[in-house]
Structure formats: C-alpha cells, structure tokens
C-alpha cells in the first residue's frame, strides 16, 4: 500500500467516526515561547486541554508535521544511525476534547490497524500503565480490561511512568497512556526471542507505532493529581513507521516515503545505498535532514545565527558534513533533493510545492558557503600539519580553526587520525571552556532576549557539531 493511501485511509477512517479533519499546524512555532518546533500532534490543541480555549470540534484528526531536535524530545543523535527515528516526521493523530474516552479510542485504534489495514494481531503488543506509588495511582485496569476485549492477555504488557504516563509540563493535564508496538521480525527470529521481551528495548524491528494518551488528571502546583472534570483523548502514530509495516520493509528508509530521495542521492553522488554502514548512515542523515530543512524553510524559518534559524542551519550543516566526509561531495547537491520532496508531498502539504524554489535557493546558498568554510579549513589544517613539530597537533591551533573558521573539530580529529597524527584534546577543551566563560560574561552584560535564546541553543545543540566518528570525542558532547 502506497504511503499516500495509508495517510488517506487514516483520515477517512476517523472521518467516518465523525472527526473533523484539520490541516497540519506549521512545524515552526511562531508564538509559543515554550516551544521552538511542533513536536507532537497535540501541540496545536494545547489550549483546549488547558481549558483556556473552547474547541470548535470535539473530535479531530489530522497528520501533523513534527520536528524532534530540541527540548524534551531530541532524537537527532539517533537519526541516520537507527532506521525509525527522524528529525522531521508526520504524526497521524485523533483527538477527543471531552468527548469519547478510553473505550472508543482503544476500539478504533484496534479496528484501524487490524481491520482497515489488516495488520496481523499476532504481530502486535500493547502496553498499559502499571501505576505509581508516589502519585498514588493504580494500574490502569480500565484500559487493561478494554484491551482484553481485542487482544490476547499475554500481549498486554505493563509499562512504567517514563513510557506510559504523559504530562504536558510540571503542571496541567496528564494521564496514563497505552502504546501499540509491532513486531516485524521473521518467524525464525521470533522463535529465538519472544517479542514481548523486545518491546521498548530499541529493537529496530520491534517498534512503537501508536501512542494513545488518556488525559484524565490535572497535575496541581503542589504535585498532586486531581481528576479532570472533562476527560480527553490524544493519540499519535508515526506515519513513516506505519508505512514500513504496511510495505513489509525493515526500515522506514526502505519505504516509498524515503526511497525516491535516496535514489536521487545515489544518482547525484554515485554512492550505493546498503553497501557499507558508514555510507548508509550518511545517506539516511541527508535524506532525513533535507526534509526537515525544506519544511522549515517552507514554513518561513530561514537558517540563521540564532533561535530556531540556528537550529535549522545546524541540521543542514550536519547533512552537508556527512556528505562531505562520507560521500565525498565537494559541491552543493542537497538542494536538488527538494524537487523530489515537493513532487512527493506537495499534494498533502502544498506549502512545499509553493516554496520549492525558495527552499532550493536557500539550501544551495547555505551549502556553498559552508563548503567554502570546509575547504578553507582543510587548507589551514594542511599547513598546521606541515609545520607541526610532533605527531600530536596543538589543541590551541585546532581550536582556532574551529572558533575562527567554523571548521568542525571532529573533522579535524578524523583527518589527523587518517594521517596517523593525534590531537591534544585537553588543550582544545581548555580553550573551549575559556571561550564559553568569555561569552557567558559577555552575555551577562548584554540585555536582550536573543542573547539568552542563543546561549540556550548553544548548550543544547553543541552535540550536533560533532560527527559520530570512531574518534573519541564523547567528552565534547557534554561541554
Ligand atoms: P520512541 O519511543 O520510539 O522514541 P516516543 O514514545 O518518543 O517514540 P511519542 O511521543 O509517543 O513517541 O509519539 C507518538 C508516535 O510518533 C510514536 O509512537 C512513534 O510512532 C512516532 N515517533 C516518535 N518519535 C519519532 C521520530 N523521531 N521519528 C519518527 N516517528 C516518531
Ligand atoms: Mg522518543
Ligand atoms: Mg516510546
Ligand atoms: Mg510513545
């Protein structure tokens, strides 16, 4: 089944259950100081759950563009390395605002997966909240008993607070959740280890596809929980993961959502997907990141030096560096992938078609300027190496390259390693912390919101600057 059809089956299914189908909210938040990017389908309905606004419809469904690269949900380090976490992805969701509750939410989720899509029930597991002593709440018996009507009891697993209790924040609406997981391993693999032992264990073929949240409490300022007068349903299902299941693939990247982009990368770069792990990671990173960056630009967020724009720039640079390092791409090419995305997703998200040329131009310009930086850095590094007195290159010099010329430190380390040289990491770190100290005191004397924002970003996104190479740079990530 084509992904287009999966999406429309979902929306039509919930339409038939009297849901209003609404458009995706923008991926880039414009007027929410607490969140830079939409990271879940419920974000645009937040005010309804908080009771600050009255919903026009009590049953809603949509597909929402999400980006998980900051704050509580930051999947960036996983992206490309695993096969089922993306930066940008679509979250299919259905909501009840004080309308139906657990019984219908569970029955419909089950019906959609097993009747409408005909996913075999023996490949599914569901989880139920086990309860929590501190919060004095019992196991979610209600959900457990409802699930028993649909699925064999041994396939209902108990889950802890981390996986099965959702909270909007320190205070406010919250409640237990039930997740649906799918086991797509071969029969042979299944015979070796029972699927239930692999649920929530980061197994690439036993993955969570749908999360059903039962919003029934309000977390009070003193930390206690109070039953809500009106109870709500908030669900989210990963569209690309569902496509993997429906298309009988082992990776989201093997579905028709990603394959056209990957094929274009192969054509342009001459690389072959599924040959070596390093190349594969690079290809997946680029295929993933170009979607995130394109949709951000289409939403009006250009790459820049602060706030959300800075995050977008870092994501794009990460893709450029993976190409540069592992696919040997020395010229701009990522911008050429926008046409594929626009062609593929333009019907569902018209903004990408409308802004295609802007996306292409912006990405191309960013690529060219960053490739120039990389090129200059390489030349400078070359002269540092040539004038070096020992096999260990000064951390001070590497820092200068990083700080003044924007040359990524892990690339420096990688190149040195390839030449049988090493880097004085302690020296580099000490320079880095000195610089952090300098910018901290500079920030203290400058009043202005953007300074604060930018500082946060730097703390939060520092990890992105380092490619995950074999070079031991883990300590930098904690800087
Ligand atoms: P996971 O445990 O796999 O990280 P999650 O519990 O963080 O997922 P939820 O917040 O429950 O995810 O989001 C609802 C659904 O969205 C998930 O069940 C999953 O199918 C999908 N999803 C979550 N994060 C991603 C991602 N980074 N890329 C693609 N799909 C995702
Ligand atoms: Mg997650
Ligand atoms: Mg989870
Ligand atoms: Mg979840």
Automatic annotation (TrEMBL):
<protein>
    <recommendedName>
        <fullName>Alanine--tRNA ligase</fullName>
        <ecNumber>6.1.1.7</ecNumber>
    </recommendedName>
</protein>
<keyword id="KW-0547">Nucleotide-binding</keyword>
<keyword id="KW-0963">Cytoplasm</keyword>
<keyword id="KW-0479">Metal-binding</keyword>
<keyword id="KW-0694">RNA-binding</keyword>
<keyword id="KW-0436">Ligase</keyword>
<keyword id="KW-0820">tRNA-binding</keyword>
<feature type="domain" description="Alanyl-transfer RNA synthetases family profile">
    <location>
        <begin position="1"/>
        <end position="479"/>
    </location>
</feature>
<comment type="similarity">
    <text>Belongs to the class-II aminoacyl-tRNA synthetase family.</text>
</comment>
<dbReference type="GO" id="GO:0004813">
    <property type="term" value="F:alanine-tRNA ligase activity"/>
</dbReference>
<keyword id="KW-0175">Coiled coil</keyword>
<keyword id="KW-0067">ATP-binding</keyword>
<keyword id="KW-0030">Aminoacyl-tRNA synthetase</keyword>
<comment type="function">
    <text>Catalyzes the attachment of alanine to tRNA(Ala) in a two-step reaction: alanine is first activated by ATP to form Ala-AMP and then transferred to the acceptor end of tRNA(Ala). Also edits incorrectly charged Ser-tRNA(Ala) and Gly-tRNA(Ala) via its editing domain.</text>
</comment>
<keyword id="KW-0862">Zinc</keyword>
<keyword id="KW-0648">Protein biosynthesis</keyword>
């Amino acid at each position: 089944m084509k992904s287009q059809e999966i999406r429309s089956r979902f929306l039509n299914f919930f339409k038939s259950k009297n849901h209003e189908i609404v458009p995706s909210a923008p991926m880039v938040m414009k007027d929410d100081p607490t969140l830079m990017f939409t990271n879940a389908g419920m974000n645009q309905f937040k005010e309804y759950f908080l009771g600050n606004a009255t919903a026009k419809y009590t049953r809603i469904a949509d597909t929402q563009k999400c980006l998980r690269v900051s704050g509580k949900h930051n999947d960036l380090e996983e992206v490309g390395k695993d096969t089922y976490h993306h930066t940008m992805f679509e979250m299919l969701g259905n909501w009840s605002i004080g309308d139906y509750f657990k019984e219908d939410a569970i029955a419909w989720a089950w019906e959609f997966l097993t009747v409408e899509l005909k996913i075999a029930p023996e490949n599914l597991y569901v989880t139920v909240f086990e309860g929590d002593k501190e919060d004095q709440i019992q196991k979610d018996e209600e959900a457990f008993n409802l699930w028993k009507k649909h699925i064999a009891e041994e396939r209902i697993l108990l889950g802890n607070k981390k996986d099965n209790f959702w909270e909007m924040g320190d205070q406010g609406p919250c409640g237990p959740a039930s997740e649906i997981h799918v086991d797509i391993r071969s029969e042979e693999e299944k015979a070796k280890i029972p699927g239930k032992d692999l649920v929530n264990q980061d197994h690439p073929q036993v993955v969570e596809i749908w999360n059903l949240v039962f919003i029934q409490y309000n977390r009070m300022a003193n930390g206690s929980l109070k039953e809500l007068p009106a109870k709500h349903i908030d669900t989210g299902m990963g569209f690309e993961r569902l496509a993997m299941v429906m298309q009988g693939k082992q990776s989201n990247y093997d579905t028709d959502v990603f394959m056209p982009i990957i094929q274009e990368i192969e054509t342009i770069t001459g690389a072959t997907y599924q040959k070596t792990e390093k190349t594969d990671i690079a290809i997946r990173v680029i295929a993933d990141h170009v979607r995130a960056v394109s949709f951000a630009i289409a939403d009006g967020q250009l790459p820049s030096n602060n706030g959300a724009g800075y995050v977008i720039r870092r994501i794009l640079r990460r893709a450029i560096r993976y190409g540069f390092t592992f696919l040997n791409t020395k010229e701009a090419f990522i911008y050429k992938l926008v046409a594929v995305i626009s062609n593929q997703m333009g019907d569902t998200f018209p903004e990408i078609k409308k802004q295609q040329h802007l996306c292409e131009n912006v990405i191309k310009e960013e690529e060219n300027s960053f490739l120039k930086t990389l090129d200059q850095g390489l030349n400078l590094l070359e002269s540092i190496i040539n004038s070096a007195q020992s096999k260990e290159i000064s951390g001070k010099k590497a820092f200068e390259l990083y700080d003044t010329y924007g040359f990524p430190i892990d690339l420096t380390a990688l190149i040195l390693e390839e030449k049988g040289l090493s880097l004085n990491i302690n020296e580099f770190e000490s320079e880095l912390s000195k610089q952090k100290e300098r910018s901290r005191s500079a920030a203290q004397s400058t009043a202005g919101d953007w300074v604060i924002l930018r500082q946060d970003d730097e703390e939060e996104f520092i990890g992105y600057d380092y490619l995950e190479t074999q070079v031991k740079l883990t300590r930098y990530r904690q800087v």
